[in-house]
Design brief:
6 strands, 15% strand, alpha/beta, elongated
Length: 215
């Protein structure tokens, strides 16, 4: 099993922990991670863009002038595509952009992302991610102690708890910080893991992550 250090919120190394190789020690699959990111971005799109075609634009039912004798080209409607205020030719319409991934692919993408972060030294295990009060400056100090630079993006992964007060405090402390995202084990995605440079993982969340992602 892979070993990594455990840190506290003061930035002190307090021990080591063994991580399951089936989740944190796999060979990262770049193709699967790419597929997961593309699917995530597609699913964020609404697909509600729409324009009106020639038959949907109001008006234009009357022939603008008679067929012959005016010197103009013949016209049948003022809502033809070449007219101002006319319909749009082959314009976009509402469509379903949703792309679903098989569970095995989704889990492999998350295992690959976690393993890549650990391999690159961009994943840190924290004994307990918690703050005494919901203050932004408290979170800034803690993240800096853990090694976050001024421009580093950070993903903080928390375990699900019956008492959500602790999660709420961490979320409120971090929500005003640029490039800092707080999530729980239940909504952890490959996209979020790859989008952020650093991942700070609560030690208490590891068991649930292994339980969900183990092949």
């Amino acid at each position: 099993m892979a070993q990594t250090s455990v840190w506290n919120m003061s930035g002190e190394e307090i021990g080591e922990i063994e991580l399951d190789d089936t989740v944190f020690g796999v060979q990262p699959n770049r193709a699967v991670m790419h597929e997961a990111v593309v699917a995530h971005l597609r699913n964020r799109r609404q697909g509600t863009v729409s324009v009106k075609g020639r038959g949907e634009v109001r008006g234009g039912g009357r022939k603008p002038w008679r067929q012959k004798g005016t010197g103009h080209a013949r016209q049948g409607s003022t809502r033809a595509p070449h007219w101002r205020h006319g319909g749009v030719v082959h314009g976009p319409g509402p469509r379903d952009l949703h792309r679903s991934l098989p569970d095995k692919v989704s889990k492999l993408a998350r295992r690959s992302a976690l393993s890549a972060k650990l391999l690159d030294g961009e994943l840190k295990v924290v004994d307990t991610v918690a703050v005494a009060e919901a203050r932004t400056r408290v979170m800034v100090s803690a993240l800096s102690a853990l090694g976050r630079g001024d421009r580093d993006s950070v993903l903080v992964v928390l375990p699900i708890q019956e008492d959500r007060a602790g999660i709420e405090k961490v979320y409120l402390s971090a929500r005003n910080l640029k490039n800092v995202t707080v999530c729980t084990t239940e909504n952890l995605s490959a996209y979020e893991l790859l989008r952020h440079r650093l991942v700070f993982l609560d030690q208490n969340a590891i068991e649930r992550i292994v339980e969900v992602l183990r092949p």
